[in-house]
Design goal:
The complex is a heterodimer of chains A (99) and B (138). Chain A has 99 residues and is α/β, with parallel strands linked by helices. Chain A is built from three helices and four strands, in the order E-E-H-E-H-E-H. In chain A, 40% of the residues lie in helices and 32% in strands. In chain A, helix 1 (20-34) runs parallel beside helix 2. Chain B is of the alpha+beta class and 138 residues long. Chain B has helices at residues 16-26, 34-55, 87-91, 106-113; strands at 3-10, 61-69, 72-79, 116-122, 126-134. In chain B, strand 2 (61-69) and strand 3 form a beta hairpin. The chains are: A alpha/beta (99), B alpha+beta (138).
Chain lengths: 99, 138
């Protein structure tokens, strides 16, 4: 996982297979990053993601709920087609738009 | 050619990739499309993740039995864990017993990405998920 702040936007790049094994290693780090004050949106970038299952969806929904309370938007970027299929099945785009 | 394999692995998250990639390799002789392979890997990952996350409080194992007949894959993923109290409820989209960090989409994804999904479970005995998928049929 890599991250950068661009003005008031936090961009988090995920890598490899986003499954239970990966998510449990990065969840706390992501929560620390998004807890920073002054950010207006968070972007998850999937450019380098080879696989996502419902644990990855859980990561998104969980962060969405935390950010919603602070009125911070969560956006999904560079979603590959195999990941897009999982996201479309789950309806995640209705709360976290694809950009 | 008809074929089968059986394997048993510890119910640990590091084995999820091994399990889904093994199934993907197993069906390669059926000339799956990239999309079919991704669907299979995702569905297998969901079933194995359920065993890893929900089945046991401590250590446990996951058994995977897969068979190919003609162009059809049959795969059964089972555990000897605590079982599911209400299978119909567990199958509902967005239902989860796992709290805020779980999407509740595991069975929905299995049902969407495979041709059929059958779940048998009994409390204290374990859960078994059998899925089928045919390849090369458009």
């Amino acid at each position: 996982m890599k991250y950068k702040y661009e003005f008031d936007q936090l961009i988090i790049e995920l890598y490899g297979d986003v499954d239970e094994h990966y998510v449990k290693k990065i969840r706390d780090d992501i929560d620390f990053l998004i807890s920073r004050q002054g950010i207006s949106s968070v972007v998850f970038d999937f450019k380098n993601v080879s696989f996502v299952d419902s644990t990855g969806l859980g990561l998104i929904f969980g962060r969405y709920k935390k950010l919603l309370a602070r009125k911070v938007e969560l956006l999904l970027r560079n979603v590959p087609s195999h990941v897009d299929r999982v996201f479309r099945t789950s309806g995640v785009y209705s709360v976290c738009p694809k950009i | 050619m008809d074929n089968y394999f059986k394997m048993q692995i510890p119910a640990k998250s590091e084995n999820e990739a091994f399990a889904r990639n093994t199934l993907a390799a197993f069906v390669l002789p059926l000339s799956p499309t990239v999309e079919e392979l991704n669907d299979l890997k995702t569905a297998v990952s969901e079933a194995v993740t359920n065993c890893v996350v929900h089945a046991y409080d401590g250590d446990g194992s996951v058994a995977i039995v897969a068979e190919i007949h003609d162009n059809m894959l049959f795969v059964t993923i089972s555990d000897n864990g605590k079982g599911i109290e209400d299978v119909d409820k567990a199958r509902e989209p967005m239902y989860t017993s796992g709290g805020d960090e779980r999407s509740g989409m595991g069975f929905t994804i299995m049902e969407t990405f495979m041709d059929s999904v059958e779940i048998t479970s009994s409390l204290g005995q374990g859960t078994s998920v059998t899925m089928t998928k045919s390849f090369g049929v458009c």
